[in-house]
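pinging the channel bc i need a second pair of eyes. not urgent but kinda urgent?? the chain im working w is below, pasted from the shared doc
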Amino acid sequence: MTAYIIRRLLIMPIILFGVTLLIFGMLQVLGPVERSALYVRDIPKNEHQVDAIIRRYGLDKPFYVQYWNWLVGVEDGATGERVGGVLRGDLGYSRTGREPVIDALVRRLPATMELALWSMIPVIGFGIWLGIKAALNHNRPIDQAARIFAILGWSLPTFVFALLLLLVFYAKLDWFQPGRLSTGFSQEILKPGFSSYTNMVTVDALLNLRFDIFLDALRHLVMPVLTLVVIQVALLLKVTRSSMLEEMRQDYVTTARAKGLPEKMIVNRHIRRNALIPVITVAGLTLAGLLNGVVITETVFDFPGLGSWAAAAALSLDVLSMLGYTLFSAVLLVMANLIVDVLYAVLDPRIRLN
């Protein structure tokens, strides 16, 4: 197992190198003026200033020189300080957030993490459980109901379902509201007496013993979480059900039953364990997608996470913010693939022996 993990870790730098090379290649479609925003905060006012910035930061040099400068930064001849550099966490300036891109990512990530964690628990738990139940009761009422739910959930557009929830639970019933917190509680968490340990409101509210803030944050999470759960459970249910049915038709299952093994033991120790291998892929990439920021859901419900920020950046043509978001998403997906590969090896010893 250790050797397998080491091999996977050694591959990661090569993958990340390819990712950064691709993203920097996308950056080359911009002109020198737009690329100068990686190093300066204001667009130059005249051509002489533009030429000076291009020469100072090497924006007219060969591709490989610009790529190296983008990774490690360049030295500002006027101040002697090193400016820019992805490896230093400098991704440029976000015009949408009016702050450095890395600061916008760090500030909005806790909200997206909170939404992802509250969504992923029911998605994995309910999706896998219902998929297994449907497969074990093939063509029975529970299987038919699960299949209908999966078809409806997966075919229903996210924004349509989100708008329906807003129409019913906010506009008509006024049970739940968009946003992250009510106005009064938004002021409460900014007061000196409230300590922000994780910047996830529900977690910090519990740590501060402010159950009123916790309940208000939960009320605001209901609609976005319900939207994500319905869509993602449908996918996980379909994958789990199909994988279980395929495993149940294997010869080793017939052999185990012929030997007189209890059905419960066959399902728990053999069928379910093997069937979870493709499910892990979907679950891992689903979690990575949620952590990337669910653009439509966060935008519809005015949730201040990475997704709503990325949508605002795209609408305002804030290229540097979009590239920073893309780089973050790519690194997260690479990490998710690594974790999925390790879990593969845990579930199936044959994988790490190949």
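so The first strand starts at residue 74 and ends at 75. and The mean pLDDT is 81. — does that match what u expected or am i reading it wrong
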